[in-house]
User: Fold these one by one.
Assistant:
Number 1:
Amino acid sequence: MENTRRIRVISVTSGKGGVGKTSVVANLAQAFQSMGKRVLVLDADLGLANMDIMLGLNPRYTMDHVLKGQKRLEEVIIAAPGGFHLLPAASGIQELTHLDYSQRLFLLNELDTIQDSFDLVLIDTGAGISSNVMFFNFAAMERVVIITNEPTSLTDAYALIKVLSSKYKQKRFKVLINWARNAVESDHIFRNLSLVADKYLCSPRLDYLGWIPYDKQFSRAILKQDTILRLNPNTPASRSLMALAKKILSIADQGAFEGDIKFFWHRLLNCSPTPSLPSA
Ligand SMILES: Nc1ncnc2c1ncn2[C@@H]1O[C@H](COP(=O)(O)OP(=O)(O)O)[C@@H](O)[C@H]1O
Ligand SMILES: [Mg+2]
């Protein structure tokens, strides 16, 4: 077994918006930090509800400044409550897959400078099947798909998994149920998705990651621009978030993810129509 340190890059995604991606990513990031992991969150959502706003942060710079060569990556990354770090990439992310060769080299070099600073990268991908969402999910080593008990959440998740498995050859997905009433309901939702996937898709593997109960404290956390984990660490939702973080860390199956951080960035940056970088 090789000894080199591996960074895990996990995308958190959904077919439908508003299912709790940003909330889950912020809380999981804090949970991992509390377990001694150094976490970088990449905000790759182009929507309005970005993590910096959710946590009351006011980033002065974004990935845009890095792409324009105005700032180093380490100047753009900011500290978030709970000790994790955030790369506020939202406004620059559209360009990420349309960089020219020299910009890519520059960015890859910049990314090299931060890779020893983190153990885990969590990506808030945004919802749907736009090319941005696809690229981040394709490039990540592991994918967590969030669904709720709303029928549209299920059908949209199905559409997302369909595109990722057929077009991008991604065959493994971890499924997280949010807003569930109890474990039985959550099992039921997962089984429904699995049934449809088995029937109509070319056998992607769906692993049940767990569930988070509905908790009105989430809304309070938004108002306080903090997370439920910090404000109410003992609510059932907070406990399930901690349990999820533990479970993710305990997944020792190396087959569950592939590559390293360089692999991720290369894969992401090579997803565009412009010529590929030579392999490192
Ligand atoms: N388990 C939950 N129980 C209650 N409210 C939740 C839960 N998860 C998320 N929310 C709320 O749902 C809304 C959407 O969450 P958000 O994280 O912004 O979703 P997304 O990033 O998928 O669009 C927020 O107001 C959030 O507080
Ligand atoms: Mg969001």
Note: The chain has one domain: 8-269.
Number 2:
Amino acid sequence: MITLRQRAAAILRSAGWELPPLPVTWSPRMIRCAGLFVVEHDLRGRAHPEIRLSIPLLRRRDWPWPQTVCGVNCRNPEQVQERILEHELIHYKLWSDRESDWGHTERFRRLALDQFGHQSVTHGIGAEEG
Ligand SMILES: [Zn+2]
């Protein structure tokens, strides 16, 4: 059984990004956004980056296939999850590189295209983009 964290680590490796693997968690409460990169700070001010995925949006199997996610055709839920993970890991990469903006910037778009072939900087799933 390959965990989401291991899949994220494999994506980081294949992209050649030497970043520590981060927690990837499923959230039952995210209903508008398929994936989210969040950084929480503990009481000592230490940053804890994390990726959250939406159970309601990503675990459903009743979609018509293929689905376009990040501008890429996906044929099953596993491929959708993989594209969302790649997308959120780009946010992680920009944050780790101490970019002032780790949103959907020009550098984000370029990394998404060059590393993963994403044609779009939005997921295309859910109403809100993370
Ligand atoms: Zn995003």
Note: The chain has four helices and five strands.
